[in-house]
Amino acid sequence: MRVTLFIPCFIDSLYPNVGMSMVHVLERLGHTVEFPEEQTCCGQPPFNSGYWDEARSVASKQIDVFKDAEVVISGSGSCGAMFKVFYPELFHGHAREVDAKALSSKTWEFSEFLVTKLGVADLGARFEGRATFHDGCHGLRELGTKQAPRELLKHVKGLDLVEMTEAETCCGFGGTFAVKYPQISTAMAEVKCNSICETKADYVISNDSSCLMQIGGWLNRNVGSVKCLHLAEVLASR
Amino acid sequence: MISHQGDREAILGRVKEALREPAPLKHPAERSAGGEPTTAHFREWLPPVGAAIEERLDLFRKLSETLRSELIACASVREAAAEIASLASAGGWKTLALHQGELVDALLPLLPASLTILPLQSGYDKDQLEACDAGLTECDLLVAQTGSVCVTSKNSGGRVLSVLPPHHIVIARTGQLVTDLTEAYQSLAAKYRDGYPSMISFITGPSRTGDIERILVLGAHGPKRLTILLLP
Amino acid sequence: MNTLAEPPSQQFHSDANRSSTDAPRRAAVRRALSNYQTARNRTGATFTDWKSARASAATIKHEALNHLDRYLEEFEQKFTARGGQVYWASDSKQARDYILELAKKNNVRAIVKSKAMTGEEIHLNQALLAEGYGVVESDLGEYIQQLKGEPPYHFVFPCMHLRRDEISDLFHRELGTAKTDNPEELTMIARRVLRRAYVEADMGISGGNFIVADTGMISITENEGNARLTVGLPKIHVALIGIEKVVPRLADLALFLPMLATAGTGQHMTGYNSMYGGPRQTGEIDGPEEFHVVFLDNHRTRLLADPEQRDALHCIRCGACLNVCPIFKNIGGHSYGTTYQGPIGSVITPHFRGLEDWKHLSGASSLCGACTETCPVGIDIHHHLLHNRRNAAAQKPAKGEQLLWKAFSFLMKRPSLYRFAMKFAPLGGLLHPLVQGTPMDPVAGWTGSRDFPAAPLGSFRERFRAHNAAKQSAAHTGGAR
User: How far is it, in rounded angstroms, from Cα A100 to Cα B161?
Assistant: First the structure.
């Protein structure tokens, strides 16, 4: 299959390894991976801030970029949800509503694409360690992704996956919220990270790098010993 | 002087104006085969209750236990009276308030002579009722699905007999047990075709609160105990 | 809390910031809610299909709200035919004045009140006390808050933030009772005081959970029995209720009562669910001589006029969205500065009290969607927070922020400029001067409490290009072999 990657701006610049891991996993499965270089940002920051005109103009650009894609795979549940759920709402009643819906219907979150679309659970990955999984809110509640990443991790040899009590609790990132309301955002990170630490895990894994930036930011400052990994990085390791 | 109805016309006018554009229905309910909206079909999504009377009774018994209601099966009115007598002596009751009704009237002559009876009639003394040790009432229905006792101002001694004394005793017949709330409302609608009592109340367990640290405490205001005497 | 001088957004910022670092209080709130989720999940699982039940509830509420005029009139006709009286109040003052007038006309001295958020909304107690009436809140949590002189912390669990020792100290100070750390003993202290209040009151004031149109009844849900007593013993009953609380049919309560209980507290049915269709009827032993229903608009029609957000009026005030909200759990109920706290409060308050003054509440959310997921009547709560943000930006854009997003969109529409910026100033370094020194500054906001990831060597696009080049040359080499 011809698979087109949507690598959100912060993964592009801050977490290139996440994108490359996705490439490796998909290529090992025999798919052709494309990355249109014209892509930039999904437009979620201005959208979430209420500036929908500005968001629409950014979004419109992405709709063009991915027009010819067969399937679009996102390594971030949040940016994926922007394509899949919020573009149709953003363009509701606007000229490009049909195009927005078309992009929405061919967009997949990475784990959901592997498990639901391709029917793959065992990628032959090996990763030694004790880990817990964080459900990113947009992936979980906008896209309904809960079991797919766990299904994939279950098949990773050497990995000991333990659930934390606050797995579905928001980490407090929320895009611009994290910098507009840093105290609240940090309090939320603390709750999340305490729950992670309770599991005595060495790693916290998620399918959303934006959450991991928040979680990792707090853990590095306050704990230091727990490492953050994107699901793709675990699945790509051998 | 305030006008009797206040801003009736202005508010209704604003409502009508606001509703000129309809709102989308975002979560359409499943539709029945006939194409009717499911407003009446929600019954099947709610906690299920068995059809047989034994299943209903089992569920009611189980829920009573969870709710900390005391459900006592009594073979006869005489046995029910004996239960009340033992509750009275164990609780050191002096006064029992009650109302007139077929079952209560049958119980009355069998109650211990040591108990002072306060028969509730129109214009009772509030202080006297407040000082009673227990209240005895009949009910309209029992609901298996929720473990509830349905009382009304008509058939349960008015509005407060079932809720002011610290111990509420209900005398009921097994035949009064309905399946679920839908059946309860159907049954009430049929019974009160000519006018509902001014109060219908589903009582589900004794009075309770969780207001202090969300810890359950029984008897916040009214009955600390709810005893249901169930006749065949 | 200097609410008079401070604009709501400043009050919110300072209270939320203070509360979110108050570790003991946050722990107490989390502890109080720890059993809620378990109980709720357990009870929810007894439904054969919670989602379909929720869709049914949403459908019924949609029907009720979209024909609100018809159902209110139907209620009025049925209710007045049974001797009840309906008063329509456009705003707080009208509602307060009517109730004061009733009290005066009937020589009322003592008033007992059962829990009514509408009462909080219109500041009823303050108005009654100012006119010399004694008012006692009878719900235990409300009573505690009244003694403490604080508004409710949570619109279903008014004093959930208080520990037992704080309540014990409060009772000791206000009532002269011995100190105890036993919740049951504390409850019994309040019980003794409040039982006298019911007997002595001439007027009982309640709220209402549902307005039942087809039978002309008000339905009240409670656990303690205090509302039963409040509307059973005094000679006048006043129910103050928002016009949106309509259900078309009495039979609809067979759905709403279990759903309210499950979502609200995790019970399968709340202790007392009572429907009142008029004052004492002929042949009845007791009950009030007069029953007044006060319909409160107070800007509900403003929200009704917005079809996009009309479903926010479906709310049955179960409080579930507060119980699951990570913001609520960390900043607490008082930080909101509103009658209705939490996610639903952040949605409706801007409609009730003005978008410009209350838009900050919609901004203070990570949009995690736990509220929408838990809502028993299918309100798209967190999407409405987005709608409020959009409407606020359209109504009065914040100049600096608007400029930032214009620049952002300018950059993001131009991939080559974007690539250039990413290469030389990763993650919007180009935009940073725009926000430096403002509350929008991501660097200052972030690094105060969290580390920033170390910049990697090379972006994804560079590595992907290299990867493809390597693959191609490998293919060539392979071909030549």
Answer: 63
B36 pLDDT above the threshold of 70: no
Work out whether strand C217-222 and strand C272-276 pair parallel, antiparallel, or are unpaired.
antiparallel
| C420 in contact with A, Cβ within 8 Å | no
Touch B-A: 3+ C-beta pairs under 8 A: no
User: Min CA distance, C21 vs chain B (Å)?
Assistant: 21
Chain A residues touching C28 at Cβ < 8 A:
none
| pLDDT for C440 | 64
The string over C146-155, giving b where at least 16 C-beta atoms fall within 10 Å of a residue's C-beta and e elsewhere, is: bbbebbbbbb
Give φ, ψ of A187 to 5 degrees: -60, -40
Alpha helices in A113-222 (DSSP H): 137, 147-154, 177-180, 182-198, 209-222
Q: Does the beta-carbon distance from B220 to C32 stay under 8 Å?
A: no
Mean predicted confidence (pLDDT) in A157-172: 97
* Percent of chain C residues topping a pLDDT of 70: 94
Indicate if A61 and A149 belong to the same structural domain: no
- Chain B hits for C28, Cβ within 8 Å: 213
Helix (H, G, I), strand (E, B) or coil at C153: coil
- Determine, yes or no, domain membership for B11: no
What integer pLDDT is reported at residue B32 of this predicted model?
Answer: 42
Domain around A223: 122-236
Query: Residues A53, A153: one domain?
Result: no
Of C29, C87, C42, nearest in space to B7 by CA: C87
Q: Identify whether residues A111 and A143 lie together within a single domain.
A: no
pLDDT recorded at residue C479: 52
Chain C contacts of A16, Cβ < 8 Å? 456, 458-460, 462-463
The label of the residue with tokens 């920033």 reads C452
Do A94 and A161 sit in the same domain of this protein? Answer: no
Contact C229 B163 (CB under 8 A): yes
Residue B41 within any structural domain of the chain: no
Establish if B31 belongs to a structural domain.
no
Locate C262 and state its tokens: 């499950």
Residues in contact with C154: Cβ distance below 8 Å, sequence separation at least 6, in sequence order? C160, C161, C319, C322, C328, C333, C341, C342
Q: Does the pLDDT of residue B192 top 50, yes or no?
A: yes
- Predicted confidence band at B1 (pLDDT cuts at 50, 70, 90)? very low
CA C434 to CA A38: how far, in whole Å? 25
Query: What CATH number is attached to the domain comprising A72?
Result: 3.40.50
A83 and A25 in a single domain? The answer is: yes
Residue among C72, C229, C311 whose CB faces B26 most closely? C311
Domain count, chain A: 2
Question: How many structural domains does chain B have?
Answer: 1
Q: Which residues 6+ apart lie within 8 Å of C295 measured at CB?
A: B6, B11, C72, C86, C87, C88, C89, C241, C242, C243
Compute how many other C-beta atoms are within 10 angstroms of the C-beta atom of residue C285.
Answer: 20
Beta bridge partners of A217: none
Helices C381-395 + C355-363 axis angle, to 10:
130
The CATH number of residue A127's host domain is 3.40.50.11810
Contact between C150 and C19 (Cβ < 8 Å): no
Based on the domain organization, do A83 and A128 belong to the same domain? no
Range of the domain at B222: 53-210+218-231
ipTM value for the complex: 0.95
Residue B22: inside a domain, yes or no?
no
User: In chain A, what's the furthest Cα-to-Cα distance?
Assistant: 52
Domains of chain C are 47-298 (3.40.50.10420), 399-472 (no CATH)
**Other beta carbons less than 10 A from residue C410's beta carbon:** 15
Tell me which residue of C340, C364, C363 sits closest to C352, measured CA to CA.
C340
Cα C280–C212–B161 angle (5° rounding)? 35
CATH number for the domain spanning B116: value is: 3.40.50.10420
Check whether residue A88 and residue A170 sit in a common domain.
no
Quick one: A6 and A68 in the same domain? Answer: yes
